[in-house]
Every structure is written in structure tokens, then in C-alpha cells.
Design brief:
259 residues; mainly alpha; 9 helices; 0% strand; elongated
Length: 259
């Protein structure tokens, strides 16, 4: 009995994974179909990008401050004066890992939940059925603009948080560790490479795709009225966050093979 339940659970996991991949394929296919809804795309870019700036920049600024404080103190304990290298230590870790991952997780909570709730509400109120009646493809009208907006804005926000997080580290270096801003910047440019920047940017593209596809899919799969919308919203956030963290490992491993 237990083996049957385990087998059914495994089968359901693969079925759901297949459903997400098919939904991704359909979204990509409709992305290149006319007409292009530029107004809707711009609205989604504004919502996903501009309106997410406060939460992402504030969070990553303080993350940079914490990183500098923790690493700087630890470096000085191991070897007095070694905190002079704090600039490269903070910036490389922020560029490669913390900024893309934390930005994506914040967007999964803020944007992913909003996408799933919006599309889920349209699903249970039969607005999506109305789109089909009007000969408008729901994926083209609802999924494609959000997919393109996430694809563009998640990497853009990651670049911004790279800079902001590094500035947070510089703030602590200046006022907490006695390292001047000039020394901090010199150390950053001495050891930071283009690969460090591109690694985080490469990851953020995949994270944006995962947030958009999982959130839209959960919205379209909503059943059961208001309660179903709540469940879809929770599942969108949880699954997006898990996908980001799991894929982060494999993307990091892949990038290390390439380097």
C-alpha cells in the first residue's frame, strides 16, 4: 500500500513537471505570434520591475552590510589587516550568488503570488473562458506579457542589486572597518572579473523564466473559488522558491565546468 502511494506520488510529480514544460513551450511559441501587446508588456514590466525596486534594493543593501561586517571581522580574527580585501570578498559573493538568488526569491514572493492570484481569480470567475469565446488565446494574452516582463526585469533588478549590495558593503567598510571607499573600490576592480558578473546575470535569466512560468501555470490550474485562488498563490510562491534554489545549484555547477 505504501509503495503504491509512493509510486503515485512520483508519477504525479513527473506529470506536473511535464505540465510546466508544456506550458513553457506554449508560452514561448505564442511569444513570437502577432499581435504584440506592447501596452500590457510595459504594464507588467512596470509592476514587476519598477515597483519591486524598493524591496529588492533595501534588502540587498542591508545584505551587503551584513556580509561586510561578518566577513570583515572574521578576516581580521584570522589575520590582522586582511579585511582590506573585504571589497572583493563581498562583491564577488554578491554578484555570483546572493544578489541573483535573493532578488529572485523576493520577486517569487511579491510578483509570483500576484500573478497566480490575478490569473487564478480570472479562472474561477470564468474570465478566461470569456477570452476563449472572443477568440483570444489566454496564454498569448495573459502568460506572454508576464513571461517577457520577468525575462527582462529579473536580470535588470539583479544588476541594480549588484551595485546596491556592493555599496552596502562599502558603507560598512568605511564606517565599521576603517577602510576607505577608494581602497574598497580598488580592491573590487582588482579581483572582480567579467565571469563573476555574467554568472549572476545568467542565473537571473533562468530564475525569471521559472517565476513567470510556475506562477502563470498555477493561476491557470486554479480550481474551487476563492479557496482555490489562495492555494494556487501559496503553491506558486513555494514552487518558484524551490525551483530557484534547486536550479541555482545546477547552474552554479554548470558555470564552474564552463570556467
Amino acid at each position: 500500500m505504501n509503495s503504491d502511494k509512493t509510486a503515485n506520488r512520483i508519477i504525479s510529480i513527473f506529470e506536473e513537471l511535464g505540465g510546466h514544460l508544456i506550458f513553457l513551450k506554449e508560452t514561448v511559441r505564442w511569444t513570437f505570434r502577432r499581435p504584440f501587446d506592447y501596452k500590457n508588456i510595459m504594464q507588467q514590466m512596470l509592476e514587476i520591475g519598477y515597483r519591486s525596486l524598493p524591496v529588492t534594493t533595501i534588502t540587498l543593501f542591508f545584505t551587503g552590510m551584513v556580509m561586510a561586517l561578518q566577513i570583515g571581522k572574521a578576516m581580521d580574527k584570522l589575520m590582522s589587516g586582511s579585511s582590506i580585501f573585504i571589497g572583493s570578498a563581498v562583491t564577488i559573493s554578491m554578484f555570483r550568488e546572493l544578489c541573483p538568488v535573493l532578488t529572485a526569491l523576493l520577486l517569487a514572493g511579491r510578483v509570483g503570488s500576484a500573478i497566480a492570484a490575478e490569473i487564478g481569480t480570472m479562472k474561477v470567475t470564468e474570465q478566461i473562458d470569456a477570452l476563449v469565446t472572443l477568440d483570444a488565446n489566454p496564454i498569448h494574452y495573459l502568460s506572454v506579457p508576464r513571461f517577457l516582463a520577468c525575462l527582462l526585469m529579473v536580470p535588470t533588478l539583479t544588476i541594480i542589486t549588484d551595485v546596491v549590495g556592493s555599496l552596502g558593503g562599502a558603507f560598512i567598510a568605511q564606517f565599521g572597518l576603517g577602510i576607505t571607499f577608494t581602497k574598497y573600490v580598488e580592491n573590487v576592480f582588482q579581483y572582480l572579473t567579467l565571469a563573476d558578473f555574467l554568472t549572476g546575470l545568467f542565473k537571473s535569466v533562468f530564475f525569471g523564466i521559472e517565476i513567470a512560468i510556475i506562477s502563470c501555470y498555477q493561476g491557470f490550474a486554479t480550481r474551487g473559488g476563492a479557496e482555490g485562488v489562495g492555494k494556487s498563490t501559496i503553491q506558486a510562491v513555494v514552487k518558484s522558491s524551490m525551483a530557484i534554489l534547486i536550479s541555482d545549484y545546477f547552474l552554479t555547477y554548470l558555470m564552474q565546468l564552463v570556467e
